Amino acid sequence: MTQLASKRERGWLIAAFILGLLIIVSCSGSGWSLATPPKSVHNPPIYPGATTIQTREAKPDNSEPVRFTTFRTTDDSKSVLAYYSDTLQRDGWSSDDNATSDANKSLVHFYWVAGCPVYGITVLALSDIAGATLVEIAVTETACH
After folding, report:
1. Measured between alpha carbons, how far is 87 from 85 in angstroms, rounded to an integer?
2. Are 122 and 106 within 8 A, CB to CB?
3. What is the mean pLDDT of the chain?
4. Which of 30, 70, 81, 125 has the most CB atoms at less than 10 Å from its CB?
5. What per-residue confidence (pLDDT) applies to 128?
6. Which helix (H) or strand (E) holds 82?
7. Is the per-residue pLDDT at 13 higher than 50?
8. What is the mean pLDDT of residues 55-82?
């Protein structure tokens, strides 16, 4: 899981930047919204056949809490990201179109903005040497100040 931790930092910087921009845009013009966020904000979908499922919450210094769900699957990272793209978009999430992918790693960000707060989901999938895929889902909620 140390591979996840080192790769995660770059993803969080990108996600924080995008969420910051979304907060400025959503809170400056239309004000607060009473729209109900998708159910997946509180219970992100678990990939079919996932094993070794773990959840935890962390609160990085001076930021909002982040809920992490990690698991393993025997499917490749492309299949995992395709599942999350389809499932989350059907649940009302938007993708930031900045997905990154190479032979061993895939990363995609989703967001939900209808006023404040702003929600984000980042899905990181890493292929390991045993042929499994390690997946980390991070859910953030950013309040408007």
Report:
1. 6
2. no
3. 80
4. 125
5. 86
6. helix 77-90
7. no
8. 89
Average pLDDT score over residue span 104-116: 88
Assess if CATH 3.30.1480 describes domain 2-142. no
Peptide bond into 45 cis (omega under 30): no
pLDDT at 23 over 60: no
In the predicted model, what is the mean pLDDT of residues 55-59?
Answer: 91
Longest dimension (CA), the chain: 50
Q: Write b or e for each residue in 98-125: b if 16 or more Cβ atoms lie within 10 A of its Cβ, otherwise e.
A: eeeeeeebbbbbbbbbbebbbbbbbbbb
Identify whether the C-beta of residue 122 lies closer than 8 Å to the C-beta of residue 138: yes
Residue 38, judged by CB atoms within 10 A of its CB (0-12, 13-18, 19+), counts as middle
C-alpha span between 67 and 46 (Å, rounded): 14
Element (H, E) at 68: strand 66-73
Which two three-digit tokens encode residue 2? 């140390």
Domain boundaries, the chain: 2-142
Tell me which H or E stretch contains 70.
Answer: strand 66-73
- Model confidence band, residue 3 (pLDDT cutoffs 50, 70, 90): low
